[in-house]
Amino acid sequence: MNYLDNIDFPQDLKKLKINELNYLSQELRDFIIKSVSATGGHIASNLGVVDLTVALHYGLNLPEDKIIWDVGHQSYIHKILTGRKHQMHTLRQLNGLSGFPKRAESIYDVFDTGHSSTSISAAIGIARARDLKKENYEVVAVIGDGALTGGMAFEALNDAGRSNTKLIVILNDNEMSISENVGGMSSYLSKLRTEPKYLSTKKDVEKLLDKLPNHGKNLKAFLRRAKNGIKQMVVPGMMFEELGFTYMGPLDGHNIPELLDAFNKAKNIKGPLLIHVKTIKGKGYKFAEEMPNIYHGVSAFNIETGVALSNSSVSSYSDVFGEKLCEIAEKNESVVAITAAMTDGTGLTEFSKQYPNRLFDIGIAEQHAVTMAAGLAANGIVPVVALYSSFLQRAYDQVIHDVALQNLHVVLAVDRAGLVGNDGETHQGIFDSAFLCQIPNMTVLAPADYIELKSMLEFAVNEYDGPIAIRYPRGNSKSNINNSYVKVELGNGTVVEEGMDITIVAHGKMVKTAVDVRNILKSHNVDAEIINLRFLKPLDKNIILKSANKTKKVLIIDETVKDGSIVLKINSILPDNIKTLCKTLPDEFITHGSVDELLKQNKLDAESISEEIINKFFN
Ligand SMILES: Cc1ncc(C[n+]2csc(CCOP(=O)(O)OP(=O)(O)O)c2C)c(N)n1
After folding, report:
1. CA-146 nearest atom, ligand 1
2. What is the pLDDT of residues 454-472, one digit of tens each?
3. Domains, the chain, ranges and CATH?
4. Which string of b and e fits 494-530 if b means at least 16 CB within 10 Å?
5. Residues 111 and 71: beta-carbon distance below 8 Å
6. Measured from the CB, is residue 513 less than 6 Å from ligand 1?
7. Which of 130, 210, 352, 589 could be joined to 359 by an S-S link, Cβ 3.0–4.6 Å?
């Protein structure tokens, strides 16, 4: 029988018998593997929560009850069971379903996520609002053991634990972040995983002991006294209990009846409850189960072989960064690298092998990464902190307060700067240049190709002293641009191509777009000069002014929000007789889709830009 065919919403699911749910789970696994093999996405995390999600939708009462998915990359099954099964083929595609929960997409998505470790804060907020409004329903945060390494999760546990607010936190423990999970909390969870299942609560044990005549009372008193000793042996999850949570677990996250039993019990527990659930990341798809780190996030792939359909052997900016950092670290022993649970994604895998003692994977903790780097720099080490642009947003204050204010030599390697594509709004790297360029003492660079990335890294680590950021895009550089071999010098741009009719000012990946624009303009007999800024801060005003005074027309291309772009700065130095055209992204959040589609949609591709120039200046 095909169960999934008859299920669109949780009400349909509730018509099944408990012993039928396993069959549904199997169908969901097959569905997800097929669907993600075509769209790409977070396959391993979703396969790991199939049974948990089925149990949640069966045991709870959605949409009255609310589920907040931490990071939200594991919400595909939830989407399928809440009316979006037939749109799954559009997942992460332009105009299609988002790869993350979106309130705008469904009433079943109660909170937008994408960045890690926010779910418990959001859940306690939603639960407090429920109580203030005197409403009555369950609020559930589902958080992975990886996401639990983020500071916000601890802040929220600390607050929620003492709140007496009814709230369920489901800890989805698969012992993996993207790579193997790290840190003391992870070791603590590993110990808990081996404890016998603990479906009762501490209070139940105490009640039970009370029932034993006389010596039960004595034993209870003894247990109370031996708070950190024997009680820990009796009650697992003591750390959570001490924080104020009732702890339940560890449960088998693939045993649906066991989960349903726990959810049933949960309804009668007052105050905050943490249910610790053990799952297997990638469960049900051989490759994902064996290599959950590789199958955490994938592009479209062949189901039989597990191999990506696109050519993944082409090197990326992240790879080049990692290779060059290894080379630099060999000669300069003061250099260390820091990653926030993204060793593979930021290209640091080889570095971690060559210099295991000089690579710090500090968990999903960008704020800590930056301040820890400041500490290292204050004590004579040169830290290179590799973070994705959108995740660096987390550490804005740390960059200002701990790095820039003390003028410390910390190198920020800002990966995925600019549009990132299918992950969408939460992941686009379109704000970092805006906030970095406003910070005193901060120097900001953007390479136009791999050659520049390498020489900028060399410059930032070995020649510069102070806070410095290099921002580079997702993906690969298709070709080199002229003059990228010219030595990197503080605040100096380069002329990539000379021309007489118009000046194009760009930096980073957009220099290549400028070259494409120049080629198109050539066929209209327009001769463009291209300035590669290299430095977003300090800006090379001389090179811009010299060219602008010659051509009298300036086109500025910047793949970032307009308000935070270089446009305002450049406009402020240009004389009144110079005509300008500014091409940036709008001051909006940018949806998901391929990077090329998004550039086109926002008229930031070479064809659209050229058309606008011709219409505005040369018609
Ligand atoms: C602030 C932030 N930093 C980094 C990431 C990238 N990231 C996405 S998922 C993930 C690992 C999450 O691990 P876990 O919570 O255990 O979930 P799992 O995928 O193992 O189910 C990371 C590091 C992010 N989403 N947000």
Report:
1. 16
2. 999 999 999 999 999 999 9
3. 7-198+236-290 (3.40.50.970), 201-235 (no CATH), 317-471 (3.40.50.970), 494-617 (3.40.50.920)
4. bbbbebebbbbbbbbbbbbbbbebbebbeeeebebbb
5. no
6. no
7. 352
